[in-house]
Amino acid sequence: MFCDMRREGIQPSSVTLLSLLSGVTELTYLQCLHGCAVLYGFESDITLLNSILNVYGKCGRVEDARDLFEYMDGRDIVSWNSLISGYSQTGNIREVFQLLRKMRVEGILPDKQTYASAVSVAATESDLKLGKSVHGQILRTGFELDSHVETALIVMYLKCSNIDIAVQIFERTANKDVVLWTAMISGLVQNDSADRALHVFGQMLQSRTEPSSATIASALAACGQLGSLDLGTSIHGYVLRQGMRLDIPAQNSLVSMYAKCARLEQSRAVFERIGKRDLVSWNAIVAGYAQNGHLREALVLFSEMRATLQKPDSLTVVSLLQACASLGALHQGKWIHNFTMRSCLRPCILIDTALVDMYSKCGDLDRAHKCFVEMSNQDLVSWSTIISGYGCHGKAETALRMVFPEPAVDVLGILLDACRTKGNEELGNIIAEEIFTLRPMDAGNYVQLAHSYASMNRWDGVGEAWTQMRSLGLKKLPGWSFIELHGTVTTFFTDHNTNPQYDDMVSILKMLSWEMSKSSIDYINQTVDC
């Protein structure tokens, strides 16, 4: 219609161009409209130029946006915010904060949108120091935080793994919208705090805030982390009762949740109902079968995936290699190795490390070493994997001869365990000294050393390790576990009696122990009589 309008000789106004810009997503169309703005003399229309500036940023052409910004005679707060937002989306912290300083020099005061962009770029780069700096500036200016800025701050603190401050901001927020709730739940899941994420999800439902598809996806991911089938099925039931239409990411999360809870039939049923399966859908179902030890079915699904012309990625291959490693399926592992070479998926540190692990656990140490040597980049995980492979097969001396770039306590701990298994006391003492040199204040190292001495019947060494640990005032963090019952997740710590039902649990355990002992005696008596 715009072309027809021009053919009929009707000159468009700036409002016409503004309305067209709202739907532009491709650079070519944007450049045409920018040219029209220049052609028809709208270069002084700041509203139109701000809109063009904003769309340049959204198209990823920040340098073009900067050129337009510098060309503009008059700039308002929207102009600054549009350019800062563009740099924020590309993760350019340096330019964002330079523009913030330049704003103050030119007498332009930042507003909520400005600070939201600055917080977002700190979150993208996981830069806690800069994020706190911006948060401090916001508090000093006396802005009343709106939901947009609060959400940006919560996301920033969660991405920087500072959960406590994120929770404080969240709890102080009076009017929580669905975006804020979802950001909190998703961030907690990403910080391995699935139990807290589900607690927040419960609060959200109690507040009568209707969850979005993204909220459901995060809540299901939390259930998958905990292996909480009851809660996962409850959320699935809620979705069905409410008649919600889940998007592909949420359906993928549902597939993954059932698979992690070892309910492969339900996982497969959900997968089959997904209309347009993407790479994540296929990875979820393939990994589900692989992680539950069903390698044959996982490989069948892998073949179906390739038949649909969906190209596997590193995560697909790694899940299959991990299954081969756990099952000792060397033949299938070699086939997957060949596939990665034919598909040009290597070099990839995830795949390369998984190959080393697979060959090591399948007993082919020569091929594991070859894969390790061929790696273009070796990190701590890959070093730990190859050394663990040697250690588990009684070749700690061979592992120790490998020259790794810097001593790593985790790697040396694997070697110490190998010495304990093989009774190599002399080498174990050398490794133990190296561990304490690197990390002298870690209680876990003393516990590991005590266990090593105990396995060798070196009780003097056990006593010395415990004595040294106590003299330094070190305490090992207690072991813990959790159980889910009737949709509630309860955490237990070793030697803690703070649970309100502690006495009841002890009483029941004593009763069960007595009944088991009585049943054992009765069984022995019956066997003797026979």
UniProtKB/TrEMBL annotation:
PPR repeats lie at residues 45-75, 76-110, 177-211, 278-312. Keywords: Repeat. Pfam families: E_motif, PPR, PPR_2. The keyword Transmembrane helix does not apply. One of its GO terms (biological process) is RNA modification. GO terms for molecular function: RNA binding. This is Pentatricopeptide repeat-containing protein. It comes from Prunus yedoensis var. nudiflora.
